[in-house]
User: Fold this.
Amino acid sequence: MLKEEQRFVASDILEGMTSISALLNAGEGNDRKIEKVLIDRAKRKSKAAQIGFLTAKSHELGFPVEFVDAEQIDRLAVGNTHGGILALCTARTIPTLSKEDICKDSFYVYLEGIEDPYNFGYAIRSLYAAGVSGVILPPRNWMTAAGVVARASAGASESLPIFQAEGEDAVALFREAGYTILCAGIRDSVSVFEQQFSYPVLLVVGGEKRGISRALLDAADRIVRIDYGREFGGSLSAASAATVLAFEIFRQNRKV
Assistant:
């Protein structure tokens, strides 16, 4: 397993069947490709079903499957939950958001200031489960730790449409598309549990360190907060806040 200071070097290696299967089932919006699959040769029997699936996919998509020693798997892996299966992949392109990318009457989330790839992955996992149509990120190389993000998100990062845009540009595009802009915050806020927010919605969530920029807060139609169950001076992690807000907005718009 890679040392802590090396953990993001193997940026385009997906670890384990959950992440690899998510990529194989991803839509056209994800241009990442598998270049090679490595399998611990000691897992031939215990992973027979997964190996059969990957072998069939290798014939269909044209990537090789190689059986190697466990030591080679461990040298490349960041974590230890890979089950002896790794996929060496190409980098994924994160396209710049355009108005054509925005679906009608949907739910999107803009994540600002989340720098840790684990927290980013946890947030993506929750947002995918809450049914968001896509996530927008500030411009940067978000996939330098693709393997970590994929594991933390249980593969959701490979399945969810992801775009990049400056915050103000994203808000302008969504406002033009008729979306309500909500920002997570405290000052001049309303409780997300006491208001009705109907789709289409763009929710903006910031990281713990820097939060949401003043420009985005000023551009919001409403600032929403999460009411706690007791007096508490701390704040939720960005991933936790995104989870609570996204599921509450989903609940309000759920069609039974």
